[in-house]
Design brief:
single chain; mainly alpha; two-stranded antiparallel sheet; 2 strands; 61% helix
Length: 114
Amino acid sequence: MKPSEINAKWKVLQERIAKEFDSDFPDLKVMLFLIGVQELGKGAKKYSKRQKEELMHIATCRLLSEMDFYELEGVDQDGWPHWKLIKAIPPYTMLEQEMLMKSLVVSYFEDIYS
């Protein structure tokens, strides 16, 4: 997708999530948190700051697994997934990283909503 297309789809997704959760427009961190909660599969509940960071890491690994950077290693005794880096991630610029993650988030939610 072109950056303009990614940004347009991102805005639509932000509007949809904001409406569904009756909240402000979510930024990338909030989207990663939501994906992490979805991937963990334990539903909405109180998470510690550390757990929130781990949820965003789960989401990042899950999204980057679509590009074969990570693979799921397994799930621990508490049901938390663990991912293994299988190929080096190129040194993207900050803008490239943001566009890549937005594109992957949009694709993730497109799969859920379709």
